[in-house]
Give the backbone structure.
Amino acid sequence: MRVCKVLGPVVATAKHPGFVGRKTLTVQPIDARGNPNGESFIAVDNVQAGAGDVVLVMQEGNGIRQIVGDSGSPIRALIVGIVDMVVEGDGRQSATAAA
């Protein structure tokens, strides 16, 4: 699982049947402080996230297939939660929660 910030929607007129009817978003991995931490990528939205939301992204194929209920799903990244708050090891609330 990765914590990411939603950058915005991805629109495609032609797509694999496994993506039909599913919203896709570009997400940017971030660290506990909300700073970019890796390359952005496309994820399927399962929680009605929107641009600017901090989200939890699953990138494990079998778990994704179980959640979407499709044993042949090609989805490689699935947004499974919207993050309300991140608390660091010392108990301080990080900047991510304010995003």
In short: Residues 61-68 form the longest helix (8 residues).
